[in-house]
């Protein structure tokens, strides 16, 4: 039997995010209405809790040198992991087949659902820096659980180990023992005091294609974009 393909890396040793084509059911972090004083956010300003976290992490002495911090527009909660493209075939062809499969009635039904809130319960700082979250509303929690169970059964996917979370950054260097100790003693307690117990508003789940961990696009729009680029490349 052929050897399994090596695991894909999400970030390189310089802290730069790498292509990581995959498909997931995702709830993106909602944005507040765009403000005239914030022209850099034409689609809406980031929530204060997330902006505060990103600003704090960017000025840390140690965490910012160990973790590649994600950009604010990429913050999201994965509802269910679906598939990763592991070969070098046409990205559009790969996505086209899976979009047809996973854009089903269950996910379409979420389109008219309102945004919902999750509460930050704890922070994990290992190979990935993330906040674990749980839905504030028990009815939303039950709907998410039922949706996941149904989707796993229909698509024969085991995603039972997933715990709801929002990733803030991925480790790109191990850090020295002194750096790790300082993160645990100084920076983690400050981050926990800032975030634990606060709420984040999320958009209803949708089917999204990840070009990388920093660029996440609605799957139907991503399919159109990939087709355009492959068509242009074929003509040149």
Percent strand: 25-35%
Strand order of the largest sheet: 4-8-7-6-9
Q: What level of helicity do the residues show?
A: 25-40%
Low-confidence stretches: 1-6
Radius of gyration (Å): 19 Å
Q: SS-based structural class?
A: alpha+beta
Number of strands: 11
- Cα shape: globular
Average per-residue pLDDT, rounded, comes to 90
Number of helices: 7
The largest pleated sheet is described as: 5 strands, antiparallel
Secondary-structure element sequence? EEEHHEEHHEEHEHEEEH
Span from first to last CA? 38 Å
Provide a descriptive summary of the structure in words:
There is one protein chain. With 236 residues, the chain is of the alpha+beta class. It is built from 7 helices and 11 strands. The chain has helices at 48-58, 63-66, 91-102, 105-108, 138-155, 177-195, 219-235, and strands at 22-28, 31-32, 45-46, 67-69, 76-84, 116-125, 128-135, 165-171, 199-202, 206-212, 215-218. Strand 6 and strand 7 form a beta hairpin. Helix 3 packs antiparallel against helix 7.
Blueprint of the fold:
Blueprint (H helix, E strand, L loop, with lengths): L21 E7 L2 E2 L12 E2 L1 H11 L4 H4 E3 L6 E9 L6 H12 L2 H4 L7 E10 L2 E8 L2 H18 L9 E7 L5 H19 L3 E4 L3 E7 L2 E4 H17 L1
Antiparallel strand pairs: 1-5, 1-10, 2-3, 4-8, 6-7, 6-9, 7-8, 10-11
Helix pairs in contact: 3-7
Name its key features.
5-stranded antiparallel beta sheet, single chain, 4-stranded antiparallel beta sheet, alpha+beta, 236 residues
Task: Give me a quick take on this structure.
The protein is an alpha+beta fold and 236 residues long. The protein contains seven helices and eleven strands.
């Amino acid at each position: 039997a052929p050897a399994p393909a090596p695991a894909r890396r999400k970030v390189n040793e310089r802290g730069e995010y790498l292509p990581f084509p995959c498909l997931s059911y995702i709830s993106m972090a909602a944005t507040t209405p765009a403000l005239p004083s914030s022209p850099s956010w034409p689609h809406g300003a980031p929530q204060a809790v997330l902006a505060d976290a990103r600003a704090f992490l960017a000025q840390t002495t140690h965490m910012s040198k160990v973790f590649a911090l994600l950009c604010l527009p990429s913050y999201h909660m994965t509802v269910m992991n679906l598939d990763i493209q592991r070969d070098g075939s046409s990205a559009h062809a790969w996505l086209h087949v899976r979009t047809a499969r996973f854009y089903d009635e269950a996910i379409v039904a979420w389109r008219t659902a309102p945004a919902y809130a999750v509460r930050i319960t704890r922070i994990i700082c290992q190979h990935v820096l993330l906040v674990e979250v749980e839905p504030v509303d028990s009815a939303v929690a039950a709907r998410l659980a039922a949706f996941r169970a149904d989707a796993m059964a229909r698509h024969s996917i085991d995603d039972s180990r997933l715990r709801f979370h929002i990733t803030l950054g991925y480790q790109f260097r191990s850090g020295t023992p002194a750096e790790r100790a300082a993160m645990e003693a100084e920076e983690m307690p400050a981050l926990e005091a800032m975030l634990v117990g606060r709420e984040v508003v999320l958009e209803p789940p949708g089917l999204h294609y990840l070009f990388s961990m920093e660029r996440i696009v609605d799957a139907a729009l991503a399919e159109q974009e990939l087709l355009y680029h492959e068509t242009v490349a074929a003509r040149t």
